[in-house]
From TrEMBL:
It comes from Timema tahoe. Residues 345-370 are annotated as: Disordered. WD repeats lie at residues 110-150, 206-243. SMART domains: WD40. The keyword Metal-binding does not apply. Transmembrane segments: none annotated. The keyword Membrane does not apply. It comes from the Eukaryota. Residues 357-370 have a biased composition (Basic residues). Gene3D superfamilies: YVTN repeat-like/Quinoprotein amine dehydrogenase. Keywords: Repeat, WD repeat. Residues 345-356 have a biased composition (Low complexity). This is WD repeat-containing protein 89.
Amino acid sequence: MCELVCSLYELKSVYQLPINSVIQSARKQNLLESLDLESDFDGDSCDIKTLKTMFSGQYKLEAETSVSMSRCFVLHISGSVSSNSKIVAALSNYSCAVYDVPHLTKLDTTSEHKGPVSGINPARDNLFYSCSLDGLIKLWDLRSGLKKSVQVFKDDTDDTGHPKPLRSFDIACNDRFVSAGTELVDGDAFLLFWDARSSNLLGGYWESHREEITQVRFHPSKCDTIATGSTDGLINIFDLSQGCEDDALLYSLNTEASVRKSVEDCYLVNLHQNTSSRELFLIAGTTAQRGECLRTVAVKNNTLKPLSQFLENKQIVRTSWYDENNGMLVTGGESGLISLWKPSKSTLESSSSGRKMSSKAKEHHKHMPY
């Protein structure tokens, strides 16, 4: 939940999205019903006909592949949008695999990490980074294959000489800086910074979070602004142009998250944005029954509204990647499947209608500002 709130806050500056209003709206509409303390089972409270009316959009399964013959989870998926689109999947066996889009043919794989891969991030068309609990961030060049990484980032400055385990990372929008958050190391959680060109460690912060840092996100256009989320419940915003950590900390938001009961049958996968329509949507699922239930809800006018279903889903989904150019979604999960989904015609028409309405509203506002 903290990761989701961190993602929402990152987009708040662009969309002026009040997070509390969205959460309260979800509770009023019973979209978070399975998270209530009195509920131990997640299930639909309406019949199939009503459900189809509410979730009118559909995503069709276009391609699907299994990542391994043995049991293996798909933990992270990321990709680049280009004429020859590719995705990279991080697997629970510590490896990363590259697939083409839209056929999902495996192109290459690497097993260089010695611990769980905690994140992947594309740099340019043929480059991507991987981050691991083994304490290493590695840069890969797809043109030369994945036999050996071309660059390694680490912090082994403590007395043991072992790299600090890395939970999350990101690359600045100008591709000059790499930052990562660590697990607790001798009671401290570190936010580390490297020069992306030389891989030299530039420094770090370790006084702003009390527990492991689970999310690190640079601002999409301001390379000196970074947001972090932690299991201590804090979301911190830093200005890296300042000289010290105290001066760099601009905002510290306390989500006031407290765990009173663990309800494990309902989960949130990811938050995506459609750049053309400036709309947000959440992907959510349930572990009830066989875990095949997967749906999206749109964030509109400070409320959550039912959007689409994935009727051919076969697994509990752990991660997703959205191709904003054509509306395709790629999901991966606990059955070791990578699935490519294309929106139905009705879903595309709904999105197009939303763009037109948004455009008309802007024009109206432009001519009548008062």
